[in-house]
Amino acid sequence: MTTTSFAGLSSNIERIEIPIIQRDYAQGRMDETTRRIRSAFLDALLKALEPNAKAQPLDFVYGEIKKGALIPLDGQQRLTTLFLLHWYLAARLGIATDSANWSRLPTFTYRTRASSTAFCQQLVTCRPPFANPLADEKDPTKELGDWFKDQSWFPRAWERDPTIIGMLVTLDDLNERLRAWSDGKLQSAWDRLTDAQSPAIHFDFLSIANIGPADRQYIRMNARGKPLTEFERFKARFEEILGHASPTDRTTFSHRVDGPWTDLLWPLRDSGKKSALDAVIDDEFLRLFCYLSALAVWKFKLLDCKAEPGTLELHMWAESIFGQADANGDRRAFLFKAMDALHNTFSGKDRPAIEATFAQWFSKEIHQQGKLALFETETNLLTKCVVHFGEPSIEKSRFSLAQTLLFYALLQGWMKGSAPDLQRLRVLRNLLLAPDAYLSQGNMADHLPGVEHLIDHGLPSAGTSMPGALKFAFSERQLTEEVEKLALKSASAALAADIERLEDHPLLRGCLFAFDLQANPVDIRRRVDTFYELFPPGGLLRYGELLTGALLTKGDYSRPVGNNKFQFGSATQDPRWRDVLTGPRVDPLTIRTPLAALLDDVAAGTGDIPARLQDIVDNWRTKQKQFDWRYYLVNYKCMRSGESGLYYSYGGSMGFDLCMLSKDVLRSYYDDPYIVAIIEQSGIPKEKVIYWFGYSAHLQQDARWLRAKGGANILRHDPAGWVVNPPNDPAQHAAFIQVCSPYGMKQRNGEWILEVPPRLAAGGLDYDTADRIDLGRKLLVDLLPLYL
Prior knowledge:
Elements: E1 2-4, E2 15-18, H1 32-48, E3 56-66, E4 69-74, H2 76-93, H3 100-103, E5 107-110, H4 114-125, H5 144-149, H6 162-178, H7 183-194, E6 201-207, H8 216-223, H9 230-245, H10 247-257, H11 260-265, H12 282-299, H13 314-322, H14 330-346, H15 351-359, E7 362-363, E8 372-373, H16 381-388, H17 401-415, H18 422-433, H19 444-457, H20 468-473, H21 476-491, H22 493-503, H23 521-534, H24 544-552, E9 559-560, E10 565-567, H25 574-582, H26 589-604, H27 609-622, H28 629-635, E11 646-648, E12 659-661, E13 670-671, H29 673-682, E14 689-690, E15 692-693, E16 705-708, E17 713-718, E18 721-724, H30 733-740, E19 746-748, E20 751-755, E21 759-762, E22 765-768, H31 772-783
Parallel strand pairs: 2-4, 2-5, 3-6, 7-8
Antiparallel strand pairs: 1-6, 3-4, 9-10, 10-11, 11-12, 12-13, 13-15, 14-16, 16-17, 17-18, 18-20, 19-20, 21-22
């Protein structure tokens, strides 16, 4: 093995030839994954060329030397990119191909296609007019690749050669990064790159004659013209890493990776693509390896290691975790023990049997007695892990952080030879799915000890102190609830069944914050049954529109969510109900009291569910003699039509100054619910007016005008009533006065206002004694003809 550089190869060879059996230059592809890898690789190379920067190693390059030519078997992509980097610097510096500087480099060519060979020959002699700078007056954004395509020697057929197009893409990326470099900086980079003693970029070259047993499969495959898979490259390199750290562990890994661990994953082969043409376990093994490696990073609190490879090659990342830095071998022991535990648990089982194993513990999205609902479309966490973990990243993976920890809890038991404890797993699920769980990759090192403690010891009994491992890992609010539920379930099997049924409801997902669990068990069972009727799992929002009004008759159940915003239920978005029912509040009674009252009234009602809810709304509405904001939202369902269920108030409280949001922020479209109500009640066609706001500066109440289609402001809502903007046309003034006079309107700062008479204040709330929507409706009907 020799440590050398691209230029250094010329001491032993004359040329580098990419053989016909190799694939095309793939590092220049345009898909997102390759673009990200190429970007990171180029950045790493250019960083090494900075003055006084640390040299960049590029790991092993394997190859055969024949008649002065290096035939690379592994390292083709890196060598090609290095060739392009050398060419670009030489071209920018004006280094001629017959100069001593250029002659220090080996000749480089591709034999995969005749067109690739010809392009490499042309490229070497080519020197684009960088000083121009590669742009004509008509097209200032012209790229380096475009310049090549415009040359007379570049046939259009070459645009179908993936190697040539890939090279042009990489050259464009290099040009974009180096365009602003001065000649002095470029010369320094060239000198560092071609330095014979201390090159800025180097690699370890291994001749085919010196390749050991771990790489023979690689050579055999390339001899057949079949490219080595990422898994096979990783396996060979990881064995070498283990050999440096512990020869015993290398032997163990080599035996198990081709034996019992393959047997473990074979039933799950090609779980993601489900293609008979690619029925291998490569991807599944690598994802499982990455999962266990991430666990090791968190478990052993490896502050200098990341939990996913990022821009590092997989074997380099693995070396940082399990290599010589693992001096006592604890991390390697964890890796091997975890893989062995999985093999022992699922040994001899085909895919249906593995599915059945998980199905005996978990249900998918609904409650099943004796099982734990995962609220997922599948229960097989092993398959989901090997298909989705880390894709495209740990944070964004379909194998969520909660599932990552739940699977770790199962693994903890299997490593100790014990069966899953479903009660402790239930508690863990509740803690992981709590709205204030705040799971993040950055906190996983705190979550793992909590999972371990919970699975090994369970929860403390009521009245005892909470262990630090649990306090640092989970929500204090949810921990308190779990301790309370544990005591209640221990005292009554019937109550335990009701609590678990409620926990498994998809809106609650383990958090029963909205329920008074100290109530009479008979009341609790009735409320559980009624809750399932109101929010049936097969159609959570079947009665959504009625529910938003019926629950409001029982009190202000909104959850303040900061910045003067208030979350209510939504007729179309069930996550909003989950937020209302389970989100943190200062006073739990603000949801428990109205929810219990609604559930009790629905249970006592007659008829189907829509009829009962409508009766609740109608009975409450007929009793109202004074009208606060709740009356208006209940009475006029269009005032609850915002899809998000969110309201914003500049005054900081629900009242007569409201914005009804479609999304989460005022930067999106939103409405003034009072204006929406008078439009609907008036029967005026909505195409005649402009009544929505958003995608502009935040509009306070004095700027939220209902406008005519032509753009003129007509009226706006005000806590005191309705403010009217007189028409600009003087000819309309007499007609305007005639319309306003019967309403007893007053002038105020150049505007006219229709006050709602009289208004009361009690208990911190404002009340009308006349319906302001009805007044506004009549006024709008009379005014609109003056503005059209």
